Amino acid sequence: MTRTDASLRRFLHGLPGVDQVGADKRAAGLGTRSIKTTAKEFALDLAIRMVDLTTLEGQDTPGKVRALASKAMRPDPADPTCPATAAVCVYPDMVPVAKETLGDSGVHVAAVATAFPSGRAALDIKLADTRDAVEAGADEIDMVIDRGAFLSGRYLQVFDEIVAVREACVRADGSSAHLKVIFETGELQTYDNVRRASWLAMMAGGHFIKTSTGKVQPAATLPVTLVMLEAVRDFREQTGHMVGVKPAGGIRTAKDAIKYLVMVNEVAGPDWLDPDWFRFGASTLLNDLLMQRTKMRTGRYSGPDYFTLD
Asked: EC number(s) of the enzyme (predicted)?
């Protein structure tokens, strides 16, 4: 989609403003909903299937990535009915390790790229980072926008970078890795900026919009995710195209995950209740989901060390 700086500015600043008090109140209200029995069992399994099991530390080793990939395929080795997670998310240099371990399991490999987590690098470096990850076998790329450019109103620069990174996701055979665009909402300051960033990323061709890197607080919150879900809903109404949403960072309990699933259903609609359209970026959430799942099956809680610690 061809855009000029002036047209982007007019469009983004012409979006309806977000009622902060109203968004906070609605998110809080949706967060009080509860679900029981078979609906809760379904929600727990769905949440597991939506997890991007993540390790993004300087101390990551091939052994840690192999262990994480094995857990993604069989989250609960004692229960073969437990579903696999959606993906394993790693730094680009760990993509070959994750890819080899996951094989044809169906669990995707996601790689962070574009000078994660700061996004502060020259475009050619960001594109080389992306191409290296894609060529190594990444199924998905999680890029970060240049928040400094966005906050100073250089929308076209951000738009063009997203377009260029999406083009870098295309492989030689014509297939493409899916692109998730990370906003780092904790640095965007206002809900209006979150809405503008959402529309900017969607118009530039992002397959998913993602809240956070997990390195900045606050990370994912219910009100911010509400604003993003409203954006993808409205974008589909206007264009016919669905875009996914991924809250990441700070979602640690099954109770929290279910709050997000309720919000997805109520705000965007049931079409988004699918790992193809909604993900959780998490490293600690999975164990609590597994503990709650075991409680539903057996009537008792397992100890926190019953499942592997990541």
From this structure: 4.1.2.4
Is residue 71 flagged as an active site residue? no
**pLDDT tens column, 126-148:** 999 999 999 999 999 999 999 99
From the candidates 139, 142, 146, 256, give the one annotated as an active-site residue. Answer: 142
Domain ranges of the chain: 5-295
Architecture of domain 5-295: Alpha-Beta Barrel (3.20)
Q: Kindly report whether the global pTM for this prediction surpasses the value 0.70.
A: yes
The yes-or-no answer on residue 93 being catalytic is no
Handedness of CA 116, 148, 9, 188 (dihedral sign): positive
Q: Is 210 a catalytic residue?
A: yes
Would you say how long the chain is, in residues? Answer: 310
Cα angle 277-207-91, degrees, rounded to a multiple of 5: 95
Which is it for strands 51-54 and 280-282: parallel, antiparallel or unpaired? parallel
- pLDDT value at residue 2: 57
Given the residues 99, 126, 246, 259, the one annotated as active site: 246
The answer to whether 235 touches 201, Cβ cutoff 8 Å, is: no
